[in-house]
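Exercise (ungraded).
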Amino acid sequence: MPTLTTAVVHGTRTARSNYQYQFTPKHHGADVNAAQWLLGLRMEEEFSVFDQADMHELSDQDGNLYGVLRGEEGNLLYIGTWHQQVAEFPVARAGEAWHGYPLYPLVDLGPENRRGEKGRPAKSLFDRMAHAGLISRRDRRRLLKGDHA
Amino acid sequence: MSQNSSGWSGKDLTQTSIRRFRDFDVSWAGPGRKTGELCFGSEDGRILLTNEELIPTGRFKDSPIPSNEAINGIAFLNDLIALSTRCEVVFVSQQSVNGKGFRSIFPAGAHGVIATLSGYCVAPLGRSGVMMVKPSAGEQQPVTIRRVPNERFDFYKVINISSPGGELLVCATRINGVAAMPFPSEGAGFVSSLTYPGLDVVDVCSLGQNLQAPAIAAVSSDCTLILSRDAFHDPKPTTIKYDEIKGTAYRVFNYDGNLILLTSRAIYVLAALGRRFLANEPIGSRPTPVKAVLLETVDANLVDNRWLLVVMADGVSLLNLEGLVGSVPSAQHADVPQDVSPVESWPDWQPHRTGLESVSREMAHAGR
């Protein structure tokens, strides 16, 4: 989808929870330091990642949702400009539209006081993605390690 | 099951046994501390050592990984074990220091970790750069991060090559292609990279140590192979693709001049391709014997130049390299009709050379 200058709210809500979804400029070209969705990804595809995440209740304990996009042959597609294959949708306040971004597979170098930080999404989320048939067992094993699938 | 894509008879790998360890889901497998020892990392951050019969010979009682994340790399260097996960790089002493073992933790994820010929531990930290540690006695391990300032570089895999010109790190850097840097270097050093639009380099292997120049093979996620006789100076590497090779590429290895390519579909053996390339044979215009072994591989590593230790979705398998490549016709038969012809391309290679910046960090020390 093209670079955005204002947020665009999708016309369809998620099938399960009736969540509204918005495409934000921050993750569509406006902020080069932020995670960016692939330019060639259609709005419908980005929304489908969110819709599937909601459909299968792929949420962590804080309520954030996580999703992936599968190709026609069942392979996992890249969704972000850093070859990300998993998207994170931080929990939205009640009544507000959700948004999301591609999630880099490694914990970046950052403050030194976060020893033992867990990866995102949690390992159990990959189990649930595999159980839901969104990723294969092999994909699960590779994504757990931060590898491409 | 096995399949010979070119129709010759080969060793039937359907008999390949898949081993599962009790209460230990393998995420990484590779060489251990000595010849004949295999090492395994688990999905919850534990280590298991076995012999070549895959019989356990030792293990850590507890996970040395604070996040308990899946191990994606293990390297042994002197007294240290270096481990990497998507969340951290951890150094653990094998022997106690003053009667007490120690553990140092670096709080950034890596795609793996290696021990270099000159005694460093090196870990590709993705877009955070390359981590280098020269292990020292005691608990404090000084860490240096080399990274490309103001540019996006994704350090995904790294290997160490020795050539008469010195030691090198050669990296698979996704859209930045193949990147080489002198190592160790005075100051921050520089990186020399080569890419073209659409390239996504996910792994690289050496075509031999101590050759006249650092020759490498690299693979793009779409299974395009890149072969270079000099990772530092070759401006137009040979670029070939085989239509018969399917799937998403994960790894590439060199065994005795044969290239072994791991993809989401199979393990492919490209007979003598590396050897023929180094001998200046026209590999782009002549067929190559290619064998496909259909296994659902997750990852693999060479061990002792004897084994291909494969992690699969439901266990591990130890393939004898001689057996794996032995059924492929030898190089002198490379032009028999049933062999597979590559498609050679001449992409618009874009060389890039840039200075690196160096950042020093301390590792957090934690008791074992």
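Further reading is listed at the end of the chapter. For now, observe: Chain A has one domain: 1-105. The mean pLDDT of chain A is 94.
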